[in-house]
Amino acid sequence: MSAAVKADVTAAYGTQAEPRLTHITPVKGTFYYGSCDGTFYAGTRFQLTPGSTEAEQVALQDDGSVMKYFIDRPGTGWTYLASDPFPASPEGCAAIPEIPAHLSALWNDCHS
Predict the structure, then answer these.
(1) 24 pLDDT tier (thresholds 50, 70, 90)
(2) How far apart are CA 103 and CA 35, in angstroms?
């Protein structure tokens, strides 16, 4: 997986979030990536980067602690797909129906 994939997934989340998040990055060790039938999936947690605004800090206060999942269908680019519930299920990403079961298994159910 390239740095471009992480950047694209981060941008996809930042632009859909309210307020818009520009000072975020994936938490090290929590980025999952794979494909199923030509569709790409990713999951990660986000953390703030230096320069974050108060609005960004508030937005990530609770919601940022859970995994976010993304999908990239051919020709569409990365889009937000789902989040873990808060608090997260002990089943990890196996509890997220939008993530194919075999990817969840490969990702160790997103347990870092």
Answers:
(1) very high
(2) 8
